[in-house]
Amino acid sequence: MNTADCQPISILVLAGGRGQRMGGRDKGLVEWRGRPLVDWICSAARPLTDDLLISCNRNQARYARFADRLVSDDEEGFPGPLAGIRAGLAAARHRQLLVVPCDTPLIDTTLLAHMQQRARQAPDAPLMVRQNGQWEPLFCVIPTGLRGTIDALWQQGVRSPRQALLAQGCIALDLAPDDPRLANLNSPELLRQVAPHEGT
């Protein structure tokens, strides 16, 4: 895919969680195949954007070298990924914000570009990836114009990114059931089991 065909987009890497399955370690900085997890994601994202953001709530000095800017939750206590998404929407420079989690190092530029191009077909609606009929809300593209709507849902107590996005008439990017790129390596055991796919 020719990434030059993609319109400007901001990209947010979510790395602001507790890392409970990693024993409390900062998940994005856990190494896999000699590189921090966040480095794999940012390397895939960089060809597509001049506005690469990382949502993190600790170790900001270590994250800073991977992104153009850092954002943090506006509430303490690790309130969840929707908090990071809200921070990204507030900071994004472009009309759309592509979101991806930090613990999916098999992600590649091609998939991110597909998300970006599919989102262009309905620029005022959010997009979510779907696999095996299951929505994957942390792989999404959100129009930054929805910031106020999502903030209002947050104030009403909504904490689920899936719920917030589906309420906005979300469109889907369907992936094959055997597509490995969404593999969520969020525990030491999974990191040991999964090898990089070709081309990583």
Structural features, described:
By secondary structure, the protein is an alpha/beta fold. It has a single domain (8-193), classed as Spore Coat Polysaccharide Biosynthesis Protein SpsA, Chain A, CATH 3.90.550.10. It is 28% helix and 21% strand. It contains seven helices and nine strands, in the order βββαβαβαβαββααβα. α3 packs antiparallel against α5.
Q: Report the sheet-strand fraction.
A: 15-25%
Number of spatially distinct domains: 1
- Whole-number radius of gyration? 16 Å
CATH topology: Spore Coat Polysaccharide Biosynthesis Protein SpsA, Chain A
Strand-pairing-aware structural class = alpha/beta
Record the SSE blueprint.
Layout lengths: L9 E5 L16 E2 L2 E2 H9 L6 E4 L4 H4 L5 E3 L9 H11 L4 E6 L7 H12 L6 E5 L2 E10 L3 H9 L5 H6 L4 E5 L12 H6 L7
Parallel strand pairs: 1-4, 1-6, 4-5, 7-9
Antiparallel strand pairs: 2-3, 6-8, 7-8
Helix pairs in contact: 3-5
Features:
200 residues, seven-stranded mixed beta sheet, two-stranded antiparallel ribbon, single chain, alpha/beta, globular, Spore Coat Polysaccharide Biosynthesis Protein SpsA, Chain A, 7 helices
What would a concise description of this structure say?
The protein is an alpha/beta fold and 200 residues long.
